[in-house]
Amino acid sequence: MAEMAIGYGSEFQLLRYLGHHRNYLNSKIQEVLKIEGDIKWFEYPVDENRDSMDGEYKGIECFEKRPDYERIKSAWKQFWPQRGKAQNWDGIFTIGEKYYFVEAKAHIDEAHQECQAGTDSRIIIKKAFEKTCKNKTLANKWLDSNCYQLANRLAFIHFCNENNIKADLVYICFYNGYRCNIKKNMDPDDGKWEIAMKKDFDTLELSNELKAMIHLVYIDCLKPDK
Length: 226
Known about the structure:
This protein is of the alpha/beta class.
């Protein structure tokens, strides 16, 4: 995991809003989710190897305190490769009994990654994708696209719901997450995130069922309370 940048970037912006504008952030999320219940954010795990002293939850780590964790862990070992890196979550919160897993983005290029897994892991991932999108041909496309990160996050959400854990995915897209500080001469992001996310949805050929699992929250870092 890279170190947090100071003054820009997705990790900084999310920390900024959680610390300085939490009520506004929560209200934006509630507006998108169309839910008024209390948002309870998970505390971040300590990571003494990072300058910030904090890390991120990976994979199913956030479920360790659940009484059914051993069952979840056993199912996860069958669903996802145990080598390499599991999904890193920028944030996690609950509303009632439902989990929401947060991906924070401050620059459009951050949303695009290709699968770097080895051959054995790719076989397991493909099977997970097949279960998620219910289409073997499309699963291959997910595996080979530059939208692999979104694809593997959706697979995780599918795993949760198939194992009696209510879960959805929340993308917090920060407009001008770099421009607002050290790169003031960058072109404004206004409108670009919506276009980029629609393109990613189209690339993965997401069904309405999968789209319903994703909630897109847009925040302009130059206008922290608007």
